[in-house]
Amino acid sequence: MSDENQVNENSKNEQLGQYRVDDSDKKMTTNQGLKVSEDEFSLTAGERGPTLMEDFHFREKLTHFDHERIPERVVHARGFAAHGEFELYESMKQYTKAKFLQDTSKKTSVFVRFSTVVGSRGSADTVRDVRGFATKFYTEEGNYDLVANNMPVFFIQDGIKFPDIVHAIKPEPHNEMPQASGAHDTFWDFVANNQESAHQVMWLMSDRAIPRSFRMMQGFGIHTFRFVNEEGVSHFVKFHWIPKLGVHSLVWDEAQKIAGKDPDFNRRDLYDAIENGEYPEYELGVQIIEEKDEFAFDFDILDSTKIWPEEDVPVKVIGKITLDQNVDNFFAETEQVAFHPGHVVPGIDFSNDPLLQGRLFSYLDTQLIRLGGPNFHEIPINRPVCPFNNNQRDGYNRQTINEGKVTYHNNSMAANTPSTANGQQGGFVHYQEKVEGRKIRARSESFNDHFSQPKLFWNSMSEPEKMHIKQAFAFEVGKVKNKSVQQQVVDMFTNVDIELATAFAKEIGATPPAKGGSNITKASPALSQENTMKSVLTRKVAVLMNNGFNEAEVSPILAELKTAGLHPEIISEKLGMITGTNGNTLQVDHSFTTTDSVLFDAIYIVGGTSDSKVFNKNTTYFLTDAYKHYKPIGATHDGIMLLNENNIPNSPGVVIGSNLQNFAGNFVQAIAAHRHWNRDVI
């Protein structure tokens, strides 16, 4: 075996290459390599006789099929992933001895899995839910897993309550409904009776719960970790992923329709972007607090229901991941990848966050049942790129063939190898935090403030975002059948904001609060998506065209949209070709039957001189949905007439091509805004 300091310099992609198999142009064999002569018929006693037990090929094939499914994840079952690499902008040697955070000249292979939390593997992508953002770094010192979500806080403060929140939000056990939704009695009963959940629920009711794309979604490590440097000095740290395309969301009506039209909307978006060479990028940021400042804030930095406001603790951007390769096999990679917050490298350690402490047990434990035992680290997608040596042996699915007969530590027959490594030799040494106290089941008083930061979040929202939160509460709590639970929720969120509680109380028929609310006035502008970066890159534009379109004027506009980084896709009555006024033809990408307005970021209506009733009827549907979802709409030529016929007013985000020289530029600007919330939509 290689020396323990030798690092496999091959990328994770190259390492996985030895396991990839292309079955095309190959002869069929059994799993033992025996060539198969017949795969259509079982071995029987005569043409009409019974199947014979000796048919080993039949039994192998059926046995493997019977065992193809492994248990899905209890949470985060619905996921999608990609390979990429991490590059460091600035050395963090001052703070951590983690090698992959010190050398800016080296790139580290990563595997990132995005997911929803509540739904099963077969649920839709666009449900209202928390999203997972888990990153596995294949470093020279071992695998490091940053297991993040797209929201920076969690429902609970202690890991012992994790089964409770999951049981509450999952489908109710008596009828297994609803799927992938918290809009039911048990979830909101949990919320009302576990008020530490208030902050997370505010995020869940916000636009953050229905992201436009995995590529336009933040990630947060949630917990407080430690950076530890070579001198043993510790700093508290939180991790952030910041998408280069900005943070953008769907609207609720749109999200519900997409769930029916394309339940794979988010995963398809990620897959297509990578296939098109439009690689998603996310910058890694860190918030750092010195140990001496642990108690310097008006919140407990170990409380997972609290953020560190960026205005108080700035985010320092230190690197970037780029996702540049889709998986070759969903099951082998995305489904079998095993993340664990306890997979750390020297220089990254844990805090006493009680939720994190619980996850350090739970994640390892769940892999044992999902992946068939303790050898899940040997599955190719989980295998480190550096050598690993220890005395662990056997178990289900063991891949390593260990030589020799010594399998214990402290031995003379193998010169006491494999031997341990001290800190100077690269061994992991836990931070020596002083710990003392009585054995108790209790929590610090500093964890008891459940409403200041939900109020901070509310204060930070723009008016459209506040309206969406009110509507989300009205929908979700309105689905609750138990009137007592509904009233408890109203009473609970009166502690956050009386305007909010009054608004949704009236919608669901509960008693509005007579008094209450919080006097917190602090806000954090960084929390509002209105303050995020705006970009047109990779946005999809539905171009509604029919035969007889003015090609001489339309084609240059489409070219300008593509140059700006947009994806215009032609939609017409039927698939095939449409013919312009000069006789040239264009390929139709979608028919009205095969796509929908909600699957696009903007609508450009061109029309055509030979418009039919079918075209006009479908155009009405596309325009109406796009308008009420606050999306940009552009129209030129015959499209202007169709815009007028559908009573689409000249309002914000509606661009009329009366001046064709400026149309494309104005339309691109409208698309960059993402949504036009100041539009009057009834």
Automatic annotation (TrEMBL):
Residues 1-32 are annotated as: Disordered. One of its GO terms (molecular function) is catalase activity. Residues 29-417 form the Catalase core domain. Residues 1-16 have a biased composition (Polar residues). It is an enzyme of class 1 (oxidoreductase). InterPro entries: Catalase, Catalase_AS, Catalase_clade2, Catalase_clade2_helical, Catalase_core, Catalase_haem_BS, Catalase_immune_responsive, Catalase_large_C. Belongs to the catalase family. HPII subfamily. PANTHER family: CATALASE, CATALASE-B. This is Catalase. It comes from Virgibacillus byunsanensis.
